[in-house]
Amino acid sequence: xxxxxxxRALNYVDDAYLMEADxxxxxIETESKEIKPMKTQKRAFRILLAxxxxxxxxxxxxxxxxxxxxxxxxxxxxxxxxxxxxxRAIAQVGLEVSVPEEFENGFRFQGVDVGQTIxxxxxxxxxxxxxxxxxxxxxxxxxxxxxxxxxxxxxxxxTESIPSIxxxxxxxxxxxxxxxxxxxxxxxxxxxxxxxWAKQPGNYVSYGADAMEEKDIAFLCWTEDGxxxxxxxxxxxxxxxxxAMAGDLIQQ
Length: 252
Hints:
The protein has five helices and 13 strands. The chain is of the alpha+beta class.
């Protein structure tokens, strides 16, 4: 995608993420629905997570030629807090995967979301639908990571950005990206310099923040047996930590 939009939907469990193509610069916005509000700490995390999702997905040339996809939008998200519900969540996505309760480095399961993503054409007609898992982890220091799992599809690919680090983990190619996000208040007008900044690969603007803030978000991506995995990190841990966790998942 040349540019992206995220529809306002980050304060609540039932969300609707929207990614638009062909906008002047990459923008992420948020909008509320009348659903039970989430805790402030969870809300802040989901804003960062939703922003990072923009960097993970890209409409491919295949989709542009074979499917008239104009935007990607996700419908309701089903949330589970108990690890005992993980198998149920996996069954809803229709994948054969294993989700660990805890990693060797101390990151422990906190919850899992089952989200549906819908591809629509310029007339707002549905042309593609898929589901993905979003698994949240936290370590004793309070640092959070999210594991995203979805089927590998030629219609929707990884980010077009160039990875900062590429490594082979137990024969599997893994790619580490570091993206930069600028969170700004609703209605904020970008300067020409900021618009130029937002057009650069790996730079994104997010509307709806209480005050202007800039953050880096890292994610590690790999594909194994037809399934795409991504570890999202808002703490900017040592990349070796993410590669080690990827190794745990690949070897299980």
